[in-house]
Each structure stands twice: as C-alpha cells, then as structure tokens.
Amino acid sequence: MIKVNLRNGETLSYDLKDVKESAEWRRVSSQLSFQKKISGVGIIFNSQWYTLPIPKKFRQITFHAELVKNTKKDVPKDREFVGEKIIVYADEIMISILVYYGKRPKMSRVDVVKIGKCRYNPALREVQ
C-alpha cells in the first residue's frame, strides 16, 4: 500500500496489488500536473511506514511506484511479488526505496543513482 502526500495536506492511498487502484495510480501519476502536487510518497507494510519526501532544490521531480516481481520460477501465487518500490527522479538523480514483504527480518533497501539528464519519461503523458 502506498500513501501519497499532497502539498495541500491531503493523503491518497493506492493498493498496488489491486488491479483497479494500481491502474488509477498509473493514470494520475502520468499527469505532470498531479506530479507537481506531490510532497512525498510512502509505503506502509507490516505496521511500518517508509517515506520518500520530495527532494529539495531540484527543478524536475517525478515519482513512480511499482510492485517488484519474484524472479524465481514456479513461485506460488501468494509469493508472486517480493516487495514494493517507490522511486523519485530528481533532475539527474534517481532515489528509490524497496520494501521487502518478508516478516523476519524486516528489510528495506535505499538506492541513490546518478542517471544523467532525463530527455524522455514514458510514464508521463504531458510534455515537461
């Protein structure tokens, strides 16, 4: 479950495992006008809240969230996904938080990667 905090104080929730809510998240997050309203995105799992606030002093910022599939073959349906990931692209940097679904130990991973200038983002429908 992801929580999206907006600049006006409103908080929206999207369950990425639910087909309708996942499609709604993809629809609204593809709008540049909606991206500009976001002040942070978080993942709630197992009574823990992992947040990724909007980075300061960057010009171009977009958020993305996705389920992370299990790469092993012949996995039971209940273990199809290993976690949830939220990503923020800020100018030439990508910051991501991956929260794993395992109960013991509780694990998350944070990555900061310099990706270079983004010329085209296929997740956005509007021109930047």
Strand order of the largest sheet: 2-1-3-4
Count the helices. How many? 2
Mean of residue pLDDT values: 88
The figure for the number of domains is: 1
| Structural class label | mainly beta
Written description of the protein model:
The chain has helices at residues 19-29, 32-35, and strands spanning 2-6, 11-14, 38-45, 48-53, 61-69, 81-90, 93-100, 108-114. The protein is mainly β and 128 residues long. It has one domain (2-114). The strands form two sheets. It has a four-stranded antiparallel beta sheet with strand order 2-1-3-4, with helices on one face. Strands 5-6-7-8 form a four-stranded antiparallel beta sheet. Strand 1 (2-6) and strand 2 form a beta hairpin. The radius of gyration is 15 Å and the shape is globular.
Topology:
Elements: E1 2-6, E2 11-14, H1 19-29, H2 32-35, E3 38-45, E4 48-53, E5 61-69, E6 81-90, E7 93-100, E8 108-114
Antiparallel strand pairs: 1-2, 1-3, 3-4, 5-6, 6-7, 7-8
Based on the model shown, name its key terms:
128 residues, mainly beta, four-stranded antiparallel β-sheet, 12% helix
Short description:
12% of the residues lie in helices and 45% in strands. The protein has 128 residues and is mostly beta strands. It has one domain.
